[in-house]
Amino acid sequence: MLSNLTKNLVELERDQVLSEIKERIGQGEDPLKIFEECKKAMDLVGEKYKNKEYFLAELMLSGDLFREATELIEPYLRGKVTEGDIKGKIILATIQGDIHDLGKDIFGMLLKLEGFEVYDLGVDVNPDVVIEKVKEIQPDFLGFSALLTITFDPMKEVIEKLEKAGLRDRLKILVGGGITTPLVKDYTGADFQTVDAMEGVQFCLETIKARVVIRARGGI
Questions:
Q1: Rounded distance, CA 98 to CA 102, Å?
Q2: Are 139 and 91 in contact (CB under 8 A)?
Q3: Do both 111 and 212 map to the same domain?
Q4: Number of domains in the chain
Q5: What is the pLDDT of residues 155-208, one digit of tens each?
Q6: Under a CB-based contact definition with an 8 Å cutoff, are residues 176 and 145 in contact?
């Protein structure tokens, strides 16, 4: 059975969603539980969009509402991860030509909950900006979110430039979003592709775990 919060978010009832979150946080309820109810709503919105029950306008409105909801929740989640718990660093971006960020935002929040340091560059990001940020931050991962096919070439361009700059080898690159497939992964030169945010999180966790094992055995 769906919670009232989940139902209201699916139905885009902004005032009810935000007031309930504020009330429940004020009562000391577990913020992770509240976030899970919001994420469940976004899963349902995604299904409605896929089944053509919702259209782009509803998808974007739900994304804006989810963002507002997580802005209320996130400060109460931060305390659950201390600096010493940071597992790795990841840069996220929706590349130039695309302004969709719902999947990226959900993925980013899930990564934060697992102890990753997330650098979200936003939407419609110029490929050169991504490359400069990789040079600056030296992350473990780079994640691209895409809902439009016009992003494939810019993502491929970024990966090729990272290779030429000698920045590709230790960097794992993920592509995600409803338009992506394993063929997109192969075309762009990424390491991993998914349409499921939790699968992406699991990939990052397993990659970090494997690196720890290699280092423990005297590897790089």
A1: 12
A2: yes
A3: yes
A4: 2
A5: 999 999 999 999 999 899 999 998 999 999 999 999 999 998 889 999 999 999
A6: yes
Q: Residue 172: give its domain's CATH number.
A: 3.40.50.280
219: left (phi over 0), alpha (psi -120 to 50) or beta: beta
Query: Domain range holding 202?
Result: 83-216
Phi, psi of 32 (to 5 degrees): -65, -40
Residues 96 and 190 in one domain: yes
Residue 138 has φ and ψ, to the nearest 5°, of 50, 60
**Are residues 100 and 62 located together in one domain of the fold?**
no
Judge whether 175 and 87 are in contact, CB under 8 Å: no
pTM reported for the whole predicted model: 0.81
Distance (Å, rounded) from C-alpha 132 to C-alpha 172?
16
- Do 129 and 190 belong together in one domain? yes
Residues found in the chain? 220
